[in-house]
């Protein structure tokens, strides 16, 4: 079994119209720019995939990555905690025009819902958002005299994430704060595709330091010297 | 009817259904034997509840490192690609549906797919381990077992009389006499030992064995007969 | 009444209450400034939602590594003992009560301890980030804020009119004029600028300021007045 | 701040009668033998602590570690998934004599309840145990047409765990399968004491490979060349 793919095109080939896609990253750290741009390129060539629901902490910055997906009209809905950034224009304009839906989720609840999706936990209770607008319509239950909101798991058809090292079995490490949501998303999507900065052979990663065991990963594609979203934005990049 | 498969033969048969690259959890005890019989050219990746994925065979006696064990507390070894993780992540793999197959032992399996394998009743010390998690987690839950108890009682039954491990979870049973699927609340016979007649097999089975299409011959390597 | 504390002075005052070895989360924006003013001989350990604990100061311009950022997407640095972890573990730290202090900004704080700091209403794009988790997670939730809005409206109120971030969560507010505790649904004044009278302070506060015992002088380093 | 202690005696000094104590380990791997034996020694000298509730996957093996605690009569109740072992005599005899309580919890549920305790999640839903005796008395709720049991978080007054490396800030790594429940227990107890095989300075552990960040740890005590429970048992050891 070898999970390594040979092209970015292949890596994003099976995402269908209307799919739910988790995309790793927090701001620019951990954003799988090359996978996202390969998906945009596919859309520009074929008109598909569109009508996507995208799950990420944010809603894009500038004109690359998720912002570029939104700009091209591929995204129907964002599920995120913080749709603001240094340059959130693309999302903001479409949101205010009613052209994109937003499900706003507190950040810790977003993380826990994704983890729950991956861990087979359909619902859990959290104190977060109790008594606020974001708890509206959700069951509230008291434990030990304190109110908690019940939240549901979050799953996706696909996850696109970025890792540092990945071996042929899909075992992954991450780089600093670029880890963020990616290990969770790797557990919660039907098909998990990872761009790794360095593809290695099984055994090259110390078993003690593997963050995402290969069982969660379907495919890896090596992208040496990947773009960093923050740096692209500081350089005023656009995709395409 | 004295002929029946050895445990090794049952384990061998179960191993034939495990695909290359499958993620597999083998219950402690007899099911661990399945790992020995991976077909040529296929390599399953074994998961153990206590936080190891992709481990290797048992070490030579005297070479054990007792911090590297499986859920049955037996020593295992590293392989290229082995990963360690904590118990919550381990059961996220189980409960989250990431395992392709779990192969477990059984006291009884019902035609509804119910499994009883953790307790034979209120006497003694109860112990459940990870069985209740596995039966509702793995994509496919199979059982390997002798066809009858030591006292000759059927283990494939209409309804379990022992406390349940899980409801409607088993989809295939590999016994010492047959391979039986659970389909829509019925046992469907897929394979049986050539030497045993349908009537003989039904006589030692506690629920109706249905036939849908061909019943294959259950033939296992002879050299495992005494293993 | 023109005299008030600068943001740096408010942040300095808040920093004085952070104990040595405390685990602290600073909200994005103004609260991040608190990290600059750790008292001599004390070292807090800073947590950021995006999976870093025990990080260091901002790097020199040009030295940023944009994979090493805080929740405000500002570059940070490593220190001996820094740890990385994923978002679920990060919010386990938050929600599980492992943080000693969270210091956040506010649109409004009510005498009940209710906090509004994420939305000023239905216009624009709503964004919540980790604020709702922090207010119910940290052992102590403090607010730093100007005492009034830019238009001169009180930010300490009887009841928040903006959408709530959390109910009954704030226990201390450091403002540009005073230090106020929330005690049993009332604001209790602990310190105020020496130059402001009780009457003047009450006039710019939207709920009754109670006095229990001595009201201390709120005195901050002069050199931070223009910072 | 330096979380390093200088003696095992000090490490177990504040566990009170009637306390709930999580003890790391799965079978012999990860069992903090020296901490447990220091606690037994304290009990033998002072008569305290007793009436303990112990949370561990198992219920002891042979006459060392948790089995020795039970043998000395310190344990009122075990919360575990599998109270069997190569030599479970000590627990078995007391259990059958009605001298020790047992709360039997499926292993994955035990792990998740501890994680929930550490993560501020008072309740969650799991498919595990639905329709079995172990779900008796627990709320059942349907999600997407499937039944799930609601389980509660599990917390403790103390956790005693074993790690491989630990720095002065409490950052930890583990050794192979000795990791098991320990990173979870470190999050779910009021006071977490760790015996580490090697105490190091902050910065000596790569931030990428820290498994338990120091925020979860209250104290560490170096025990170089720790005993391994399985090896003790194979040698027929008894404590004291």
TrEMBL record, chains A, D:
Tell me which UniProt keywords the record has, alphabetically: Transferase
Is Acyltransferase there in the keyword field?
Answer: no
**By its UniProt entry, which InterPro entries does this protein fall under?**
3-oxoacid_CoA-transf_A, CoA_trans_fam_I, CoA_transf_BS, NagB/RpiA_transferase-like
Q: Which domain of life is it from?
A: Bacteria
Cited PROSITE patterns: COA_TRANSF_1
Task: Determine if Transferase is one of this entry's keywords.
Answer: yes
What family does the database annotate? Belongs to the 3-oxoacid CoA-transferase subunit A family.
Give the protein's recorded name.
Answer: 3-oxoadipate CoA-transferase
Instruction: Write down the species.
Output: Thioclava sediminum
Automatic annotation (TrEMBL), chains B, C:
Entry's family note: Belongs to the 3-oxoacid CoA-transferase subunit B family.
Entry's NCBIfam families? pcaJ_scoB_fam
Q: Note the SMART domains from the entry.
A: CoA_trans (SM00882)
Signal peptide from the UniProt entry: none
Q: Which UniProt keywords apply?
A: Transferase
Taxonomic lineage is: Bacteria, Pseudomonadati, Pseudomonadota, Alphaproteobacteria, Rhodobacterales
Q: Which is a Pfam family this sequence falls into?
A: CoA_trans
Q: What is this protein called?
A: 3-oxoacid CoA-transferase
